[in-house]
Fold this protein.
Amino acid sequence: MGHLNYAQEIRFDRENDILYGALYVQTSGNERNYSGGIYMINTTTGAATLLTDVSDQLTALAIPYSSEPQAVSEINTNQVSVYPNPSNGLVNVQVSEKSIVTLFDLTGRVIATYQVNGNETISFNQAASGVYILKVESKNHVSTHKLIVQ
């Protein structure tokens, strides 16, 4: 095989660890003398095997490949509930497992940190009126919430 000049498309067969490519190679020193083909490339050795010659007329190639998901995990979006929002400084935090609740101002400074389990009311009375970020972190879940303190 001559020097590879360009590939129109490369596809990977992950089950067999093989690349398939529609490639053009220069067959001689003449810059206009090319040969096109479909090649199978062994990813371990790098060896390219010509499967079929398609000459210079190759304009489109499709190698169908479908990938089915192996598993789909459900995401539980109801693990954390923060209310009322806006708040007067008292906030109910409902969690499904033991969690750390951290209140940040908009510059990233930690205002307060609490440990909660289940449904608890937290007092943020020391926080001035404004917008804050409430981070709720458990063993398996992290969520952030915009909290407005009036």
In short: The mean pLDDT is 77. The CA atoms of residues 52 and 120 lie 69 Å apart.
